[in-house]
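ARCHIVE RECORD
Type: protein–small molecule complex
Small molecule: adenosine monophosphate
Source of inputs: curated submission
Record status: active
Notes field left blank by submitter.
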Amino acid sequence: MKFSDFNITPEIIGNLKKLGFKKPTDIQFKAIPHILKKEDVLAVAQTGTGKTAAFAIPVISEIHRSKRSRRAEGVRCLVMVPTHELAIQITEVFKEIGRGTRVKTFGIYGGVKQDPQITRLQSGIDIIIATPGRVFDLVNQRYLDIRQIETLILDEADHMLDLGFLKDIQDLLRYIPKKRQTLFFSATIDENIKKLAYSLVSNPIRIQISPKNPVAKNIEHGVIEVKMDDKRFFLERIISENPEKKILVFVRTKVRAERVSSAMERVGIKSLTIHSDKDQDNRNEVMKKFSVGEVKILIATDVSARGIDIPDIDYVINYDLPEQTENYVHRVGRTGRGRNKGQAISFSSPREQELLEKIEEYLGQNIQKLSIEKEEYRETLELTGERTDWQKLMLEAEEGKKRKRKKKK
Ligand code: AMP
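STRUCTURE (tokenized, with ligand):
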């Protein structure tokens, strides 16, 4: 199956070639023909499966074909996403896939000034990619008219519900025509998601992509048992042993992100942090620096994680295990994008044992345990560039105890 077998415009086929997309992924193969036929789609698919292009390709193609000029005559497609980063990223994908077509795409999200967004909107836009909150504000202030929407797309619907966007979505639906095409994407499915999905779609085509082993085959992932207080030494070691690698580190909270970053700074390792306390300009700058490799270590929380699509992340480190099991899949899925190989390592402390079991249950398989010999564990603590007197004392005390035990024997 080739992209040229789909009934899509040649400009897009050319763009896909330039992007290096040789053949459709599973979800693209299954969804594109139905979306082209204006049918509703309900898809359970994780990031990394190529789902963005699965909706971008047919939507852009159809709008391009139905337009006679480049002038937009009202917004025709609205893509709702949970986070700013995802909005930026999906807008980028739409722009790349739609290059040279008559279709204009624009991303709008909170956290940045509204005025420039309004100016752009007034210049005529066909497709809007947005977080629900900002769309709602703009619609309410009558800067944005969504009464002509033909296709409504909800991406990462489960994450939108997690973030409390249900009310915003429901409020927006009052402005969107009932007769429309709806494409609903979610990484997971439970009762709440189902309820929302079925309130939006009619006679949908259902598509489910590889629910059994949700971690892509090209990602090697393992777990090491590390005490909570020792985690930073292990992170330091991995970074020092892989100076050229781009590493994305996940932590549980914003405060921990800053703490881990400071700990790395103390041993001379430069890192960036991204979480919801940072304003949008700062987040954009951080993403850019990490993307071009100016700084190779990025420390992130789950909230900011889903939007990260940087093709060449070598390692994902789960410094803390995710509290929501499905986030394990989202996190490790940041590496091994497309056809690249990826590696993910999780640090699991005795306190996180229960979480680990839950994740394994969710995956339907055990995560490979990377065993560390006692000697190697100790060496890791000793190797740190930040050895404090206190640590030295602890190590000496350990040694002392061992010697005594030996003597007794
Ligand atoms: P997504 O699931 O939309 O987040 O896409 C995951 C990654 O796969 C992105 O980096 C895309 O650029 C890449 N990708 C999407 N479709 C294809 C394809 N047909 N061939 C190769 N890579 C693809």
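CURATOR ANNOTATION: The pocket of adenosine monophosphate is lined by residues 21, 24-25, 28, 47-53, 309, 311, 337-338 (CB under 6 Å).
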